[in-house]
Task: inverse folding
C-alpha cells in the first residue's frame, strides 16, 4: 500500500492509498461525527454529518468524509465555519425526527443547537440504513429493507423472512443509533409473527 | 366486478416469468410487464418474482413501493390519470383534480368501491401544450375545462 | 430486407428510395405525436384514408403520419406538400374539402393560421411566426418523417454521418470533432460532451456502455418525447457514432414509461436499423459491432439522475449512489458508461455531417448550437421552440410565443424545471444559455420554459415545486428528505395564512443546507424555486405572512368569492354550476354565496358572464356582510 499525506485541520497526517478521509482522520484521532458509518459496512453517505471542507480557498467544497477517497496532498478542514453551519442545520433536522435519541441530543448540544425551530416529525428512525445493510452485507439474510420513496421512506421487516431469521439473531438491534429498531421489532412481532 | 382470480393471476405471472429466469437486472422490466398485464401486483406474485429472478424480496418490495407505476392493490376498470405537471398546473390542473375527486368521490390513489375507476396523478405526459390533460383508460382529453369533467366520466360504463 | 454491407450499398439504397419519390407529388401529412393524438389526430388521419379511397386517389397522392412539429396547441396539424400549406385544428369533417381543394391547387382559407394581432392568414408553414423565428436543425425533420419508416430518414440524408465516421474518421478524430464543436450536454448540467466521452474512452475496464437518457422527468417539458417519437433514428445514429468514438459495443436507451409511443417507436427503429445492418455485427462492413437495448423507467423523477439511472438499468431501485467517481469511469456494473441526453446524441450526426466549425458558428461564446425549449403555460403559442443558444427570453416568449395569453400581464418565466427558478420581467432580455440563466439564480436545465401571468401566486408556485420534489426525492439522504419536507411545511403554512415572521430566515437556512449537504443534484438544487421567488417576489411572501393576503388570489385559505349585489343580474348560471350548492339564488333574486359551504373552487368566478362580472375574489379583507333579504329582489325596468 502506498503512503499518502493529507493536511487535516492544519496537521500533516499520513494514511494509505484506498482509505477514505474519515478513515485517515480517525486513524489520527481526529473526531468527525458520523451516524450512518460502520467500519464493517460499505460506506453509505446519507446522514451527511461527516461532511468536511476540502481544497484551498477560494476553491473549496464540502464532501462526505466517509465516502471521499483520501488523496495525497489533499487539504481538509473538519470544523470550518461552513462545516459547522451545515452540521448544525442537519442536527436540527435529525432532532425533529428523533427527539429522544441520546446520540443526537448530545451532538446537538455539542454544536449549540438549542432552539427547536422545526415541527417535530418524530418517527425516531433516521433511515441510516445500518440495520438494513448489516443484515444484507454481513448476515446475508435480507430480512429487513427499505420501502417507499421520499418522505415516505421507511424501514420494514420483511415478514416472510424476518419471522424465521430475526428472533434468533437480533444482531442489528444494538447498531441502531436511535434505539427504535428493537421497539419496532417488538411491535411487528406482536402484530405479525403471532398469526 | 373484481373477482378473485388470484389463481389465474399467478398463472399469468408464471407465464411471464418463464422467459426471465435468473435475470435479476430485468426486475423492473418484469414488474412493468406484470403490472401492465394484471394491472396490479399481487403479493404471491412478488414472492415468485423474487425466486425466479433471484432477487432478494427486500429489493422487490423496495422497487414496487418506490416507483409510481406499480400498484399493490387491484385497480378499477378504468384508470383516470390527471396530469399535475407544471404546465398543467399553471393552467388549472389542481382544480381539475379537485373536481374529479369530487365527481368520483375518491381521493387520488384510490379506487371507487364498484371498481370502475381508479384515480391517479402524473407529473407530465409530454402533451403540455394541451394542458390541462386527463387520461381515461388510454384516451387523452386535452384542454380540459371543469364542466367537461363530469360529462367525460359519465360517458364510461 | 438485405443487410447493407458497405457505405456504397447504403448510398445505392438511398438513391433508390429518393428516385422513387416524386417531390412534386401531392402529399398530406398528419401529425401523430402524443399531443396531436390526444386532441384527435387519429380520426383525422382515418378520414384522410377513407376519403382518398373514396375519391380513388390512393395511388396518386401520398398520406403520411409524421412526428410532432411542436406546435401542439394547434393540433391536429395537417401539412400539404409540395406547397407546404399548413392547416390547423383539422377535424375529420374538414378532410374532404382539403383533399378536393388541394387537387385543384387551391387553399382552404378557413383552416389557415391567422395572426391574432393583425388578423392576417398565413398559408406556408414556415412563414408562421411561431416557426419563422426558429432555427430548426434537430426538430426540422420531425414533420417530414414517418418515424416507423427508416426509409424516410434515409431519404432525407439520414445515416450519412455514420459511414463518414466509420470509414473516413478514426475514433480520435470523431472525438476531436465533438470537442471542437464545443457541444455541451442538453440534459441540464451543460457538461462538455467531449470531456465525458474522453473519460469513458480512456477509463480502464471493459465493456464500455453508452446510454441515452430519455427519462425527461422535468414536468412541463417534452422535447425529448417529440424527438424520440418523431425521429428516433437521428438519436440512434448519434449514439452509434458515439459508441464508435468511445469503443463501446453495447448501448441502452432509458425511456420513461409515461411515453409509450416513444418506447414503441424507438423499438421499431432499432429493429429496422438491425435489419439493414446499421446496428449489430460488422456495421456496414466496417468491422464495428454495436447493439442497443431499451429499458423502461417506472415512474420516478430521480431515476433520471445518472447514477440512479444506472442503478435502475441494473434492475435495482433507481436512487443515486454516494460516490465521488464519475459514472463515465465507473457506471453501469461499475464499468465506464457514458450517459447523454436524447438531444445531445441527436446533435452528433449534425456535427459530423457539417463539421465542428459550422456547429460552433451557431450560439454564444460558451454555448454552441441550437436548443429545443418547451414553451408552455400562459403563452399564446405553446409548443416546442428550437433556437440558437443565446436567443433572448423576450424573443422566445413574445416573437415566437406570441406573448402572454388572454391579455394578461406577464409575471415570470420558470426555466429549468424543479431545479430551476423563476425569472421576472426585468431580465427578459437575458440571452438564454447555460451560463446566463445560472447567474440569475435559475438554470437552463433541459429546456422547460413555463410562462406565468398575474394569476399565478409565486408562493404557491414555489410550493408546487417543493411539493413535487418532496414526492420525488428518493429519501435516502437526510438533508434532502427532511429539508424539503420542512420547506414544504413552512410554505404550506404561509399559503394558509399561518406564516410567521421568522419563516423566511428558516427557509433560507434550509436552502443553504440543502445546497451544501445533499447527496445528489436533486437536493442540491431543490431550493432554487424558493430562492428565486424570494429574490424577485419577496413582497408576495410578505403579503401572505404579514397581511394574510394572497395578491394573485390563488391560495384558498386566504381568499373568498363574493357576489357584488349591484352587478348580479340573477342569471342563475353560477348557482347551477356550483358543485356544492353554496350559492343561494333564484329568479330575480340577487345571488349570495354561503361562505361556510364554499369550497373556493372558483367555478362561479369562471362562469359568471363577463358582461356582468359580478363575482369578485377577496383577499386580505373581510367579506362584506350579507345583503338584507328584502333588498335582494331585482327591480327591472320593463
Ligand atoms: C434529479 C435529476 C433528474 C434528472 N433527469 C434527467 C432527465 O430526465 N433527462 C436527462 O437527460 N438528464 C437528467 N438529469 C441529468 C443527468 O444526471 C445527466 O447529467 C444527463 O443525462 C447527462 O447528459 P448530458 O451530458 O447530455 O446533458 C437529471 C439529473 C437529476 C439530478
Ligand atoms: S431502524 Fe435504526 S438502524 Fe435501522 S435505519 Fe432506522 S435508525 Fe438506522
Ligand atoms: S439529494 Fe435527495 S434525491 Fe439525491 S440522494 Fe439525497 S435524498 Fe435522494
Ligand atoms: S457517516 Fe458519512 S454520511 Fe453518514
Ligand atoms: S405538464 Fe401536463 S402534460 Fe406536461
Result:
Amino acid at each position: 500500500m502506498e503512503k499518502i499525506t493529507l493536511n487535516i485541520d492544519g496537521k500533516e497526517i499520513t494514511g494509505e492509498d484506498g482509505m477514505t478521509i474519515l478513515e485517515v482522520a480517525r486513524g489520527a484521532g481526529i473526531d468527525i461525527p458520523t451516524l450512518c458509518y460502520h467500519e464493517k459496512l460499505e460506506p453509505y453517505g446519507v446522514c451527511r454529518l461527516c461532511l468536511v471542507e476540502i481544497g484551498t480557498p477560494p476553491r473549496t467544497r464540502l464532501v462526505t468524509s466517509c465516502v471521499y477517497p483520501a488523496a495525497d496532498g489533499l487539504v481538509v478542514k473538519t470544523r470550518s465555519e461552513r462545516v459547522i453551519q451545515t452540521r448544525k442545520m442537519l442536527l436540527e433536522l435529525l432532532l425533529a425526527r428523533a427527539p429522544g435519541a441520546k446520540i443526537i441530543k448530545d451532538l446537538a448540544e455539542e454544536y449549540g443547537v438549542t432552539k427547536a425551530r422545526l415541527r417535530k416529525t418524530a418517527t425516531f428512525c433516521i433511515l441510516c440504513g445500518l440495520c438494513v445493510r448489516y443484515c444484507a452485507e454481513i448476515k446475508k439474510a435480507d430480512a429487513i429493507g427499505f420501502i417507499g420513496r421520499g418522505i415516505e421512506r421507511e424501514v420494514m421487516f420483511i415478514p416472510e423472512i424476518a419471522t424465521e431469521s430475526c428472533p434468533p439473531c437480533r444482531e442489528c438491534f444494538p447498531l441502531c443509533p436511535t434505539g427504535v429498531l428493537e421497539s419496532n421489532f417488538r411491535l411487528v412481532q406482536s402484530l405479525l409473527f403471532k398469526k | 366486478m373484481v373477482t378473485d382470480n388470484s389463481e389465474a393471476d399467478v398463472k399469468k405471472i408464471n407465464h411471464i416469468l418463464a422467459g426471465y429466469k435468473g435475470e435479476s437486472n430485468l426486475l423492473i422490466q418484469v414488474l412493468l410487464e406484470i403490472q401492465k398485464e394484471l394491472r396490479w401486483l399481487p403479493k404471491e406474485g412478488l414472492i415468485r418474482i423474487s425466486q425466479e429472478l433471484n432477487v432478494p424480496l427486500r429489493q422487490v418490495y423496495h422497487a414496487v413501493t418506490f416507483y409510481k407505476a406499480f400498484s399493490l392493490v387491484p385497480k378499477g376498470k378504468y384508470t383516470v390519470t390527471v396530469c399535475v405537471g407544471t404546465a398543467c398546473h399553471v393552467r388549472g390542473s389542481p382544480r381539475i383534480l379537485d373536481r374529479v375527486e369530487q365527481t368520483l368521490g375518491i381521493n387520488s390513489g384510490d379506487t371507487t368501491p364498484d371498481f370502475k375507476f381508479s384515480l391517479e396523478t402524473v407529473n407530465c405526459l409530454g402533451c403540455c401544450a394541451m394542458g390541462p390533460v386527463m387520461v381515461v383508460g388510454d384516451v387523452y382529453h386535452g384542454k380540459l375545462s371543469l364542466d367537461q369533467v363530469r360529462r367525460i366520466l359519465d360517458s364510461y360504463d | 430486407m438485405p443487410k447493407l454491407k458497405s457505405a456504397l450499398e447504403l448510398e445505392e439504397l438511398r438513391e433508390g428510395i429518393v428516385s422513387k419519390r416524386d417531390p412534386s407529388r401531392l402529399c398530406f401529412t398528419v401529425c401523430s405525436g402524443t399531443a396531436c393524438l390526444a386532441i384527435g389526430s387519429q380520426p383525422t388521419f382515418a378520414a384522410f384514408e377513407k376519403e382518398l379511397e373514396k375519391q380513388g386517389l390512393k395511388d396518386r397522392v401520398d398520406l403520411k403520419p409524421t412526428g410532432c412539429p411542436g406546435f401542439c396547441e394547434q393540433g391536429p396539424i395537417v401539412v400539404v406538400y409540395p406547397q407546404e400549406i399548413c392547416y390547423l385544428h383539422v377535424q375529420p369533417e374538414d378532410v374532404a374539402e382539403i383533399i378536393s381543394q388541394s387537387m385543384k391547387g387551391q387553399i382552404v382559407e378557413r383552416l389557415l393560421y391567422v395572426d391574432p394581432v393583425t388578423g392576417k392568414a398565413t398559408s406556408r408553414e414556415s412563414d408562421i411566426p411561431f416557426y419563422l423565428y426558429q432555427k430548426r436543425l434537430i426538430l426540422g425533420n420531425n414533420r417530414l418523417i414517418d418515424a416507423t419508416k427508416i426509409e424516410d430518414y434515409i431519404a432525407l440524408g439520414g445515416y450519412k454521418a455514420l459511414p463518414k465516421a466509420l470509414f473516413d474518421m478514426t475514433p480520435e478524430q470523431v472525438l476531436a470533432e465533438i470537442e471542437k464543436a464545443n457541444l455541451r450536454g442538453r440534459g441540464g448540467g451543460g457538461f462538455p460532451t467531449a470531456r465525458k466521452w474522453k473519460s469513458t474512452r480512456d477509463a480502464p475496464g471493459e465493456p464500455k456502455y453508452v446510454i441515452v437518457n430519455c427519462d425527461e422527468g422535468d414536468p412541463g417539458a417534452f422535447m425529448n418525447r417529440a424527438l424520440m417519437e418523431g425521429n428516433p433514428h437521428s438519436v440512434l445514429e448519434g449514439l452509434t457514432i458515439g459508441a464508435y468514438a468511445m469503443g463501446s459495443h453495447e448501448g441502452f436507451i432509458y425511456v420513461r414509461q409515461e411515453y409509450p409511443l416513444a418506447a414503441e417507436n424507438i423499438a421499431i427503429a432499432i429493429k429496422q436499423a438491425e435489419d439493414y445492418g446499421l446496428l449489430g455485427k460488422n456495421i456496414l462492413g466496417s468491422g464495428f459491432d454495436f447493439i442497443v437495448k431499451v429499458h423502461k423507467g417506472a415512474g420516478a423523477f430521480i431515476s433520471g439522475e445518472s447514477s440512479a439511472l444506472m442503478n435502475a438499468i441494473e434492475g435495482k431501485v433507481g436512487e443515486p449512489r454516494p460516490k465521488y467517481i464519475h459514472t463515465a469511469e465507473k457506471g453501469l456494473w461499475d464499468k465506464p458508461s457514458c450517459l447523454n441526453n436524447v438531444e445531445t446524441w441527436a446533435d452528433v450526426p449534425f456535427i459530423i455531417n457539417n463539421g465542428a466549425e459550422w456547429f460552433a458558428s451557431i450560439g454564444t461564446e460558451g454555448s454552441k448550437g441550437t436548443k429545443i425549449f418547451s414553451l408552455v403555460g400562459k403563452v399564446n403559442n405553446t409548443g416546442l421552440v428550437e433556437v440558437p443558444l443565446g436567443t433572448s427570453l423576450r424573443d422566445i416568449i413574445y416573437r415566437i410565443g406570441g406573448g402572454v395569453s388572454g391579455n394578461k400581464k406577464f409575471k415570470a418565466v420558470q426555466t429549468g424545471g424543479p431545479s430551476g427558478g423563476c425569472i421576472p420581467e426585468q431580465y427578459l432580455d437575458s440571452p438564454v444559455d447555460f451560463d446566463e440563466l445560472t447567474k440569475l439564480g435559475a438554470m437552463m436545465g433541459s429546456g422547460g420554459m413555463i410562462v406565468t401571468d398575474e394569476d399565478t401566486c409565486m408562493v404557491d408556485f414555489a410550493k408546487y415545486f417543493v411539493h413535487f420534489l418532496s414526492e420525488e426525492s428518493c429519501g435516502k439522504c437526510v438533508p434532502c428528505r427532511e429539508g424539503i419536507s420542512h420547506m414544504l411545511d413552512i410554505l404550506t403554512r404561509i399559503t394558509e395564512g399561518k406564516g410567521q415572521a421568522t419563516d423566511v430566515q428558516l427557509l433560507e437556512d434550509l436552502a443553504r443546507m440543502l445546497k451544501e449537504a445533499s447527496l445528489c443534484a436533486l437536493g442540491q438544487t431543490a431550493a432554487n424555486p424558493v430562492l428565486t421567488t424570494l429574490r424577485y417576489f419577496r413582497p408576495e411572501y410578505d403579503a401572505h405572512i404579514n397581511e394574510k393576503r394572497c395578491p394573485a388570489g390563488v391560495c384558498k385559505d386566504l381568499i373568498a368569492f363574493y357576489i357584488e349585489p349591484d352587478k348580479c343580474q340573477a342569471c342563475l348560471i353560477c348557482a347551477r354550476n356550483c358543485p356544492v350548492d353554496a350559492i343561494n339564488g333564484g329568479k330575480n333574486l340577487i345571488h349570495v354565496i354561503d361562505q361556510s359551504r364554499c369550497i373556493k373552487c372558483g367555478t362561479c368566478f369562471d362562469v359568471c358572464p363577463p358582461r356582468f362580472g359580478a363575482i369578485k375574489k377577496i383577499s386580505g379583507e373581510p367579506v362584506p356582510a350579507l345583503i338584507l333579504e328584502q333588498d335582494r329582489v331585482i327591480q327591472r325596468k320593463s
